[in-house]
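Weekly structure sync, notes
Attendees: PL, DS, HV (note-taker this week)

Item 1: Tyr recombinase domain-containing protein
DS walked through the input record. Source organism listed as Molorchus minor. Sequence as pasted into the shared doc:
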Amino acid sequence: MNNCESEEIVEAANIAISNLLPTKSRSLYDIAYNRFKKWCAEKNVQVYSENVLLAYFSENAKNYKSSTLWEQYSMVNADDKEFLMIKVGLILGIAGACRTDELVNLTVDDIEDVGSSMIVKIPNTKG
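Item 1 (cont.): predicted structure, written out as tokens:
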């Protein structure tokens, strides 16, 4: 709470946040997030990065359709301010049928925000 917000406003905001998702959806989000956290624990991941997300979703790409992967990704609750470029890269890579090595080699440096659009450079992995 900052100095300009009353306790009433903060409480109302917290209630609104808790009601953003229906109960059924909230449980699906919790399941997806807990699955990701379990995978991270199994891999001894201490810090989340684009490499962690790429590895997780690349591993899951072997068993799930791209639409399912995107759904799961949106449920992991990655912060848009920090991970927007990664989300764009993953969506493009998975929906664009990139090969695994192309997806794994994609970094935020390959994505350029030019205002109303983004330029994505797919790394050339063919020799």
